[in-house]
Amino acid sequence: MTEHFHAVVWIDHHAARIIHFNETASDTQLVHPKDEKLHLHHHANANDSGHAPEDQNYFHHVVSAFSKARAVLVTGPANAKNELVKHIKKHDPKLEKIIVGVEAIDHPTDGELLAHARRFFKISDRTKPQISE
Question: Is the pLDDT of residue 131 over 60?
């Protein structure tokens, strides 16, 4: 897989799609949790929230898939995107600086996700100083 500067992550509790890309090329990777949990229902008078606990191992594998990118947009339909960012802050704080945005996006195709990320970074990159390292 070619290393690209930009990446977009789409994540929910069942799968994560990570697309590394530039203006003309892209590479897609799919990550699944080891033990995919079924949706839990909250019952009246229960002492729990009805939600499955955060799968830190899953988040670790997702982070590993984009850790070489220099700028990452995190997306998804529900709370998994926020849980991923929380995981990064706690377990991989050095990577927090590469997260340039977190957005709610329902269930796009890979092509729609890539097009959205390219538009996002085209605007985002213009608003940041370009620093060569």
Answer: no
pLDDT at 14 over 60: yes
Q: Which amino acid is at 56?
A: Q
Helix (H) or strand (E) holding 122: helix 110-127
- CA separation for the pair 78, 84 (Å, rounded): 11
Kindly give, in sequence order, each residue whose CB lies less than 8 Å from that of residue 118, ignoring residues fewer than 6 positions away: 21, 23
The class level of CATH for 6-34+50-127 reads alpha beta
pTM, rounded to two decimals: 0.82
CB-side exposure of 37: number of CA atoms within 13 Å? 12
Instruction: Read off the pLDDT band of 124 (50, 70, 90).
Output: confident
Sign of the dihedral defined by the CA atoms of residues 88, 93, 96, 98, in that order: negative
Interatomic CA distance for residues 23 and 19, integer angstroms = 13
Domain ranges, ordered by start, for the chain? 6-34+50-127
